[in-house]
Amino acid sequence: MSATLVTVETTTQLTDDLIIQPPTSGIALQGQIEVPGDKSISHRALMLGAISQGETQIQGLLLGEDPRSTAECFRAMGAEISDLNTQLVRVKGIGLGQLKEPVDILNAGNSGTTLRLMLGLLASHPGRLFTVTGDSSLRSRPMSRVVKPLQQMGAHIWGRAGAALAPLAVLGQTLKPIHYQSPIASAQVKSCLLLAGLMTEGKTTITEPSVSRDHSERMLKAFGAQLTTDPDSKSVTITGGATLHGQTVIVPGDISSAAFWLVAGSIVPGSEILIENVGVNPTRTGVIEALAMMGADITLENQRVVAGEPVADLRVRARALHGCTISGDLIPRLIDEIPVLAVAAVFASGTTIIKDAEELRVKESDRITVMANQLNKMGAKISELTDGMEITGGTPLTGAEVESYSDHRITMSLAVAALNAQGKTTIHGAEAAAISYPTFVATLKQVCGTN
Ligand code: S3P
């Protein structure tokens, strides 16, 4: 195999170009790999650890930029969190309601989960003042989805555009419980309100239009919160006042990171990849179902439950895909995987429709516009819909110069497309991958057999 299949160049000190050039004969991807820890579970383990009594031990924490932002914020509020670059991260909890007023602005970086979940805790710490911000992407993302229900609970929050945009200032209050009917299926909204409800006397209930990821519910229960779920009404209720106790959290591999290999292994002819130790919580497995609808060959092996979360090894073998419609209740269960599913659709025969996914427009970038424009530069046929994309598959792609828009999932999705394109693709701003998958390029080289 040629040694120049995948090369990475650093063009400046601030941004990286990822250059991918498969040989004209193509390259079958092979390997047995692991993906980094689940981002959603990593954030929650750090946060719940910080507000519990006693020590929380976290195995397999994601060492990406986003959980680092969470750790920094909670350290600034008094939690003792050991060096993240170790096998076992220890969080010495300070107890519920004990977060200290930080001496400086809390910076959530690029992480919507950090900022939105944290707001629920800050708003319910009476008498303490917190200011929170993020990078330019996060400062442009809507915060009113959490600010409004928190204000209904009695929260005092100020910020730009009527407290819709960070930076935000929060003066903690004693909140009152509400029953919130969320207009969107969002685990960040749900989790923010559950965390606010932890410190609020009485029952706080959140009802969602479709079920979103339930990692908060699972972990809150394990830490001792009084929480009930009603799947029929898609509601979750927390009763305030319980004491949380530190736990051992074993973080499974992130299915959102595995998704890049599920698609790459499906579309690149001759490939077979085994991805070990992947979280397969049913609120997250929409990507496997969507790929199955497209005819993909993916099997779940060695299924087990680890620390309250279902886990499996995923085996993918290349197979011709066909278009499908991805919509409705499936969308929240694969929301972060839509960019890479768009890549699968480009290589599938027929048309794929993705709809009911307007949420993509307010992610780390506008993932509808960005994916359509960047893949179209490579020769794809994608039309934007207000709430998704229409993708006419089956046209071969040609390498091109493309932009990540500083969005981790865009970077990695374009890299997957490049593996099956003719010629050289240069992805500008590829350092964004480190937000959720710092070892992406190393694994890319591994499956290409170039390291
Ligand atoms: C997340 C929830 C989702 C997801 C994000 C992580 C979480 O966001 O897109 O990457 O950990 O709760 P929304 O709640 O905005 O859908």
Outline the secondary-structure elements.
Layout: E1 6-10, E2 16-20, E3 30-34, H1 39-51, E4 55-59, H2 65-76, E5 80-81, E6 88-92, E7 106-107, H3 112-123, E8 129-133, H4 136-139, H5 144-152, E9 156-159, H6 160-163, E10 165-171, E11 179-181, H7 187-198, E12 203-207, H8 215-223, E13 226-230, E14 235-239, E15 248-250, H9 255-267, E16 272-279, H10 286-293, E17 297-306, E18 309-317, E19 325-326, H11 338-346, E20 351-354, H12 367-377, E21 381-385, E22 388-392, E23 401-403, H13 408-419, E24 425-428, H14 440-448
Parallel strand pairs: 3-16, 4-15, 7-8, 11-12, 19-20, 23-24
Antiparallel strand pairs: 1-2, 2-24, 4-6, 5-6, 8-10, 9-10, 12-14, 13-14, 16-18, 17-18, 20-22, 21-22
Helix pairs in contact: 1-2, 1-8, 3-7, 5-7, 9-11, 9-13, 11-12, 11-13
Structure description:
- The chain is an alpha/beta fold and 451 residues long.
- β5 (80-81) and β6 form a beta hairpin.
- It contains 14 helices and 24 strands.
- The N and C termini lie close together (11 Å).
- Strands 1-2-24-23 form a four-stranded mixed sheet. The protein has a four-stranded mixed sheet with strand order 3-16-18-17.
- Helices cover 30% and strands 26% of the residues.
- α1 packs parallel to α2 and α11 (338-346) packs parallel to α13.
